[in-house]
Write a structure and sequence with these properties.
Blueprint lengths: L13 E2 L7 E2 L1 E2 L6 E2 L5 E2 L4 E2 L1 H12 L15 H20 L3 H4 L3 H7 L6 E3 L2 E3 L8 H4 L7 H22 L1 H22 L10 H16 L5 H23 L5 H17 L9 H30 L1 H4 L1
Antiparallel strand pairs: 1-2, 3-4, 5-6, 7-8
């Protein structure tokens, strides 16, 4: 008597790795992952996914890339930000006198120029974010406490900012830099002592660190991006150790910028279909900025309640 035939196993249903709700039977011929029709790019044999297509373009076209209006050495947004930082430092030295060239101007001078501080008395006047000067959360990003301070931040911005701007584009870079820097200032204001000022672009730079790490993390299945992710992870770890080792460094701003940057880096590619990913990125950035505004309002109320003699 013949044995009972074994029924064939049910077919395996696969879903696009970028759109988990879409079933597909097509795989990328380069990395082997399932892709849907929205993610198919025709190749010499079969189809490839967007990440593999982008990596291939970088491998073969980057060496021959010519400067353009968006990548030209003298026209990048990264370089413009660097020039603005240098220009503001020149103003700091002019306000603080020649003796402030290396060590930076005095704390009262930095506060008058726009340092991030909850409350501060200078020249008989009470100033600070808690008094309604919310612009300090932005202006502090362009001030530095000394020549070494601006040198380290400028070098880090030049190295990391240039790569982030080139890969993500100028407008995404601008949004990420502004939002992560603003959120870093808010973190410093919300957690730090209200009477201690803080200055520096390091919060926004830590934001770019987080963006770069998260952007490469999403592509870690490719050797090129995995290597860059590990390098940035090591750099972040070293900088965090330095942040918590040396006194006077605003770790709150650094962690605030880093956290916001990681979220922004994960949102760069958006979610869902390709047509809605830009909207998802913009919505994420707006949500982070609104959250920072809400935290600022809350912290201001707390400081006002702690110093009734100032606000009556």
């Amino acid at each position: 008597m013949d044995p009972t035939p074994v029924p064939p196993p049910p077919p395996v249903i696969e879903h696009c790795y970028r759109h988990p709700d879409v079933e597909t039977g097509v795989h990328c011929t380069r990395c082997g992952r399932p892709i849907c029709t929205d993610c198919m790019y025709p190749a010499a044999v079969g189809h490839q996914c967007p990440e593999c297509v982008k990596e291939a373009r970088q491998e073969f076209h980057r060496p021959a890339r010519r400067p353009t209006a968006s990548t030209g050495r003298g026209l990048t947004l990264t370089n413009l930000i660097l020039l603005s930082l240098i220009g503001v430092y020149v103003l700091e030295v002019a306000a603080g006198g020649p003796s402030s060239l290396v060590g930076g101007p005095t704390t009262p001078t930095l506060v008058r120029l726009g340092a991030n501080v909850g409350l501060f008395q200078t020249r008989g006047e009470i100033v600070g974010v808690a008094t309604g000067e919310w612009w300090r959360l932005i202006s502090a990003m362009f001030l530095h406490a000394g020549l070494l301070h601006i040198a380290f931040n400028g070098y880090a911005l030049y190295i990391v900012g240039g790569v982030v701007e080139q890969e993500l584009g100028r407008w995404r870079f601008a949004v990420l830099y502004a939002v992560t820097g603003f959120c870093a200032s808010v973190a410093s204001y919300a957690i730090g002592a209200p009477l201690v000022p803080s200055v520096g672009a390091s919060g926004a730079i830590f934001g770019l660190f987080g963006v770069f790490f998260a952007y490469n993390y999403q592509r870690r299945h490719l050797v090129f991006y995995a290597a860059r992710m590990r390098s940035m992870g090591t750099l972040i770890l070293i900088n965090l150790v330095l942040t918590f080792t040396f006194p006077g460094i605003d770790w709150r701003g650094h962690l605030g910028g880093l956290t916001t940057g990681i979220i922004g880096g994960l949102a760069v590619d958006g979610f869902g279909r390709r047509t809605s990913r830009t909207q998802v990125f913009v919505a994420t950035m707006v949500a982070l900025a609104l959250l920072a505004v809400a935290v600022t309002v809350w912290r201001t109320a707390v400081i006002r309640s702690q110093f009734p003699q100032v606000f009556g």
